[in-house]
Amino acid sequence: MGLLLLASNAAAAPRVAVRVVPVFPPKPYASRGAVGSMVPASGSSVSRATALASLTRGKLENALLGGKPKGKPLISLGGPPAPVTIYVALPPAGKHHNLDRYPIAIVGGGYHGLLLSSSTRVPGLVSIADVAPTVRSLERGEKPILTSRPARDAPAQLEQMNARLNAAHFGRKLSTRVLIGLVFGFAALAWLLRSPFFARAGLLAIPAMVLASTIASALHVEHGVAWWSGAIALVLTLPLSFATRTTRALALA
């Protein structure tokens, strides 16, 4: 019975094609299938060669280790039209910062709306390493890593998601700069004024910034997060520095 079921699943499994295409707007594909935004690499940099290797092998390698996963490709690209077709855009030739996400669409096989990845668990966000295992699973009649859910306006939801992710990325960079400014600012005041108070403040600015970021997140601050976090950290740091005038109190802090 089990063998018959496996044979039935294999017979019902669709043929899947994967096509690399130029960067495309998701709207034309959203009416025919499911769309998402694909992260092309792991680490700070990406190239077309490393993205192709990850796409066909279904795995990632951090850019610090070379970024190009080894092993035998699990899937081939191109080919004739298929009942299920996956369209992906990849980075251009050369090495680039891994900041951009690239469109992906799956047409056929009951895919509609937003793509869902069991690896990212963020609706619409896909890892390039999800594609090859999805192809293999679909062709075997098994549940794939990439599924979909209905969405009233999938392209608009993708745009909002990408905007949030971009804001979070640049917010983290700005928060780091604000923190560096606080630490060096307090250090400069400590040196100029020969002040233990500001020296302690320089040390306490780091945990204060972490706490401030948590507070800003809890308050659902969406704009100017880094500046709000910096202001909250400043407000926290000064009384903490005053309260930790003894070595024991500083150790407890």
Describe the structure.
This protein has 253 residues and is an alpha/beta fold. It folds into two domains: 2-151, no CATH class; 160-252. 49% of the residues lie in helices and 16% in strands. It has helices at residues 2-12, 27-30, 48-57, 131-140, 154-193, 196-218, 225-243, 247-252; strands spanning 16-20, 33-39, 45-47, 84-88, 95-97, 102-107, 113-117, 125-127, 146-149. Strands 1, 2, 4, 6, 7, 8 and 9 form a seven-stranded mixed β-sheet that branches. Mean pLDDT is 82; it is low at 1-12.
What descriptors fit this protein?
253 residues; alpha/beta; 2 domains; two-stranded antiparallel ribbon; 8 helices; 9 strands; 49% helix; 16% strand; elongated; disordered N terminus
Can you summarize this structure?
The protein is α/β, with parallel strands linked by helices.
Classify the secondary structure makeup into a structural class.
alpha/beta
Helix and strand element order: HEHEEHEEEEEHEHHHH
Number of helices: 8
* β-strand number: 9
How much of the polypeptide forms β-strand, as a percent range? 15-25%
End-to-end Cα distance: 66 Å
Q: Would you identify the regions where 5 or more consecutive residues have pLDDT less than 50? A: 1-12
Radius of gyration: 25 Å
Global shape: elongated
Query: How many discrete structural domains?
Result: 2
- The portion of residues assigned to helices is 40-55%
**What's the rounded overall pLDDT mean?**
82
Largest sheet geometry: 7 strands, mixed
